[in-house]
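Batch 3, record 17
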Amino acid sequence: MENLINIFVKSIFIDNMIFAYFLGMCSYLAVSKTVKTSTGLGIAVIFVLGFTVPINYLIENYILQEGALSWLSPALADVDLSFLSFIMFIAVIASMVQLVEMVIEKFSPTLYSSLGIFLPLIAVNCAILGGALFMQEREYANIAEATSFALGSGVGWFLAIVGIAAIREKIRYSNVPAPLRGLGITFIITGLMGIAFMSFMGIKL
Amino acid sequence: MTEKEPLFSAKNLKLLREPLGSSNPITVQVLGICSALAITVQLKPAIVMTLSVIVVMSVSNVVISLMRKMIPPRIRIIVQLVVIATMVILVDEVLAAYAYDVSKQLSVFVGLIITNCIIMGRLEAFALANKPWPSFLDGLGNAFGYGLILIIVSFFRELFGSGTLLGYQVVPESFYEAGYANNGLFVLPPMALIVVGIIIWVQRAKNNDLVESN
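Prediction for the assembled complex:
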């Protein structure tokens, strides 16, 4: 249990998706104009990450890895399908996003209308595929660890996008040099936020 | 490639040239930021990444453009993802075979070319509606525009961060003896954002059309 909390906290603060790896930058920059919409997108990302990473974990460990197919028959023990992982992961993500969209539409129309266009866009959000690929690279021991990593990364992404949206709402009233307005200042603020987040780096968990 | 006039007409050349400046994918269209920032600590991975994106982008643009009349609009995103993912797997395998250390350094970011919005964005916006040859040029132009920023950022980060370029020492030893020190901040991720922010600043200061209203 302690281990799971460690992974969770670590993926929120130390290995933050945005500030340490720049994943999901495109939607982060495009959708962070108001706090309300960015909250919606942030929740959707937590949701989809929490679903897709465990599923991809199962696929990775029971189908793709070298020798992973041996539960089917011992003859398949030396089959290595790991070169297929990109295509499998992206297919899982695209179909899961579609599925999640349909489920939300059926059971919670209010949440659905507040997420709106963001849900389908998440399929091509690098944070989601990045989550799956980091899960593969870091070789988590079991599915619980992978899930807590996924939720932690989602929460970290959520914090980052809500933070920058709040700052951007305020910065509209300040006098930024004209060529720096909009995109430029957002980049620089994100950099400064990243430096602030680096203070978590020394923490040993 | 034959040097026939229509192949490089003014319109086609524009496709190749514009992404380098006034419609640069990174600084103007805001596409493909994720990978652009993460792998720019040193020049070498940035160059390898640029080459990979050039290959993936131009080939998948051509393939989608060839298939544009056959793809049902409802499932086009999945089709595009499959084409891109296939290309990325090829690039990844080639890198792992011939440039293993660089491929380790790039880690997950080769895989992330799949969701690099630059490629999806150009497929959606251009290849789905145009003939193969202009699509090829568009892909090439945008990939070069992307690579240009990547190389500028990594040039400064490697020069100031570790005093080397492509792994070779360029800041002379006498500088260090006189008290010069590498700026460790440049090696850290946040500096990539700030360098890109400054590039945007310089570009927009020169080209006033690009300035955003508040």
